[in-house]
Write a structure and sequence with these properties.
With 92 residues, the chain is α+β, with helices and mostly antiparallel strands. It has two helices and five strands; from the N terminus they run E-E-E-E-E-H-H. The protein has a domain of 57 residues. Helices cover 16% and strands 30% of the residues. This is Dihydrodiol dehydrogenase. It comes from Streptomonospora litoralis.
Length: 92
C-alpha cells in the first residue's frame, strides 16, 4: 500500500493582479518582518486553490504564495539551501 505524496505548491498571483501593501487583516495578518536591508509582509490568504501563506516584498513588488506542503518542505531545508537562494535576485 502506498500513500500518494502531496506535491508542494508555490504560486504567484494571477497575471494582472495588482499587489497592494497588505493592511490589517485581523488574525490573518499581515506580519511585517524587516531589517535594515528589506522588509516583507506575510499573511494568510484564501485562494481558489485553498489557503496559502503569502510573502510580499514591497521593495521588489513581488509576491509568492505557498501551500502547507510547500511550507513543510521549507521547514526541513538545510540553511545552506536558503543561503544559496540569496544569490538569486528578481528579474529587473
Amino acid at each position: 500500500m502506498s500513500e500518494a505524496v502531496p506535491r508542494p505548491e508555490a504560486e504567484n498571483p494571477d497575471d494582472g493582479e495588482v499587489l497592494h501593501y497588505p493592511r490589517d487583516g485581523g488574525n490573518d495578518g499581515p506580519i511585517v518582518v524587516a531589517n535594515e536591508f528589506v522588509d516583507v509582509v506575510v499573511r494568510k490568504v484564501q485562494t481558489r486553490n485553498g489557503v496559502r501563506l503569502e510573502i510580499f516584498s514591497p521593495k521588489h513588488n513581488t509576491c509568492v504564495r505557498f501551500d502547507a506542503v510547500a511550507l513543510d518542505c521549507l521547514s526541513y531545508q538545510e540553511p545552506e539551501f536558503i543561503t544559496s537562494l540569496l544569490a538569486r535576485s528578481p528579474a529587473p
